Amino acid sequence: MAKIGIYGGTFNPPHLGHILAAREFQRALELDLLLFVPTYLPPHKKLPPDTPDAQTRLDLLRLATENLAFARVDEVEFHRQGESYTVETLRTLKARYPHDQLYLCMGTDMLLSFDGWYQPQEICSLAQVAMAHRTDADEGALADYAHSFGKRYGKKPIFIPNDFVEVSSTTVRRLLILGGAEDELTLPVYQKIMADGLYGTGRDRRGLPFELLKAESLALHNEGRVRHVIGCSETAAALAKVHGADPEDAARAGILHDVTKALSGAEQLHLLKTYGMIVDDFLKTHTKLLHAPTAAEAARRVFGENEAVCSAIRWHTSGRANMSTLEKIIYVADYMEPNRDFPGVEELRALAYRDLDAALLLGLEITREHLKSQGAPMGRDSLEAIAFLKTGKEAT
Ligand code: FE
Ligand code: FE
Fold first, then answer.
1. Partner of 127 for a Cys bridge, out of 67, 102, 268, 284, CB 3.0 to 4.6 A?
2. Which pLDDT does position 44 carry in this prediction?
3. 287 with 374, same domain?
4. CATH assignment of the domain containing 338
5. What separation in Å is there between the alpha carbon of 151 and the centre of ligand 1?
């Protein structure tokens, strides 16, 4: 009796996290064979824009797994060409391997949704479920889950402690546009993506008209941030008209100001490295602020924005001494755009059109109070911004 692992997914694109997971499943379960089963069309997911056609995704997966001696890419779902359900795949594979033990390999992120899968009971009768989890996962919660899972489906899942490369396919797709994806992919996969211009890498994003810039940049955000970014862009343009700055620059800086924000702290640091940027220790340890320098550099490299726009993005989280009008506008617009709601926001909104410096100072002071209440320090750039606004002089 052979042990056969089944590792399904969209692999969109297949990245090093998948390869390391495959190695770990093979080792922990002592698999004789691991089948990568690319989904033809995921039943509960809409495909993201710029997803290559199924055949191309299959080619990429073959390239990614070509050096895994124990693995094969299986087209069982690919040829079904419709909605793919795991239970159907398992029925087909069980018919093909009637005397072997099948293991359904997945990450614990599937854990919460498993009950909603089509025919979970039958899935568990056809295969042993194996779930990889991070080594820092809550052991107690996993044990509870295993217990209730076992009660419902007659067999407990096997948990495999493993710290995969944390990156997700969504992040890899973003890094393909922003930079740094080569570290997350096997070399042949990266080369094919770039050579064929897959995942939108073939498009030149520099100097786009605003509507195209908006579409391209919004595609890099998590859905929840889109309204904020549009609000900031529109507010910035309105403030620019009142305060004599270029409304086009303001709109562009607003739409791009958070363009790298969907990346985690670790990914921000990775992107900084890719861009060859050095930041001070305060920023390195306050990774929430890192999206300002990375977004500014992305605006410059990826979108070809001018220096005024990039600089406004660079200082939008902290401010600094002696800011340009556009820098002030983006800082304030980010703070007061229509989706913001906090005590004092109405005062800030009213002030912003009358007295930009006063609004900027108010924003900085509110931030300082907030940080104080959290016991968190304020960065030097913000302190210098406050000092400059109060004295009209740079700190010495
Ligand atoms: Fe931001
Ligand atoms: Fe923002």
1. 102
2. 56
3. yes
4. 1.10.3210.10
5. 46
Domain membership of residue 31 as a residue range: 3-168
Tokens 């979970």 appear where?
120
CB 342, CB 370: distance < 8 Å = no
Q: How far is the CA of 8 from the centre of ligand 1 (A)?
A: 36
State the distance from the centre of ligand 2 to the C-alpha of 336, rounded, in angstroms.
10
Same domain, 73 and 163: yes
pTM value is 0.90
Confidence of residue 114 (pLDDT cuts 50, 70, 90): confident
Is residue 215 pLDDT above 90, yes or no?
yes
**Residue 193 is assigned to a structural domain of this protein:** no
Q: pLDDT for 46-89, tens place per residue?
A: 788 899 988 899 999 999 999 999 999 998 887 776 677 899 99
**Same domain, residue pair 98 and 154:** yes
- Measured in Å, residue 165 CA sits from the centre of ligand 1 at 26
**211 CA distance to ligand 2 centroid (A)?**
19
Report CA(281)–ligand 2 centroid distance (Å): 22
CATH number (domain holding residue 53): 3.40.50.620
* Alpha carbon of 262 to ligand 2 centroid (Å): 11
Q: How far is the CA of 263 from the centre of ligand 1 (A)?
A: 12
Q: Which of 26-35, 77-86, 93-102 has the lowest mean pLDDT?
A: 77-86
Instruction: Kindly list the protein residues that place their beta carbon closer than 5 angstroms to ligand 1, a single-atom ion.
Output: 258
- CA 371–ligand 1 middle distance (angstroms): 16
How many domains does the structure of the chain reveal?
A: 2
158-195 per-position pLDDT tens digit: 988 877 656 789 999 999 999 999 999 999 999 999 99
Report how far ligand 1's centroid is from the alpha carbon of 375 (Å). Answer: 21
